[in-house]
């Protein structure tokens, strides 16, 4: 009887962990979307982000990198409240930088690509949950692919090749689609050990951040591939 109770308690804790991960991820997506729209409609915020040789934009990018590093490096030592606030602040900052898409692409394209992204993300989430393959074995190759994508993006920033941009966008969609399944499987495996302690509450936020970044990157790369730029 005691073993059954312990098992039920563990199952309940695992479900709460998974719900917390996806709850934080969807909350962050909503915050970023709302912030992007508000920024696009506010002359004051637009001037801050994109005015003055885009100093505000680059400052926000640096702030994003610092927050990701801060969360990743200190997640075990942070209180759940501090970790949650840091994640929401990151979502707001990222939303401000994402506001540029409303001026670069037609709104219809943005909506369509968002729903396509949601469908792809959902499909790969289900794959990550139900596949029998050990996706963790691909971690080394995923890291190498990420480094390669970053290097290619920097090179293309300098040379501005449309062909290379097209290749990078396809590679980006493929990589982050695969990462969605990988990160999903990692969430499921972590949930097996979750017990409701603060440490797991913080781990849920990091897991949500990873999935959030997967979704955002799939969306942006698909937008580069299929979005009709404004003239």
Give a nutshell description of this structure.
The protein is mainly α and 231 residues long.
Describe the protein's architecture and organization.
The structure is a single chain. The chain has 231 residues and is an all-alpha fold. It has helices at residues 2-41, 43-50, 55-74, 80-98, 101-104, 107-130, 139-159, 162-191, 198-226. The model has no long low-confidence stretch (mean pLDDT 89).
List keywords for this structure.
mainly alpha, 231 residues, 9 helices
Mean pLDDT across all residues, rounded? 89
Uncertain regions spanning at least 5 consecutive residues? none
Percent of residues in β-strands: under 5%
Reported for the largest beta sheet, the result is: none
Give the helix/strand class.
mainly alpha
- Roughly how many Å is the radius of gyration? 19 Å
Query: What is the rounded distance between the termini?
Result: 69 Å
Number of helices: 9
Series of secondary-structure elements, N-terminal to C-terminal? HHHHHHHHH
In helices, the fraction of residues equals over 70%
Number of strands: 0
> Shape, please?
globular
Topology:
Layout: H1 2-41, H2 43-50, H3 55-74, H4 80-98, H5 101-104, H6 107-130, H7 139-159, H8 162-191, H9 198-226
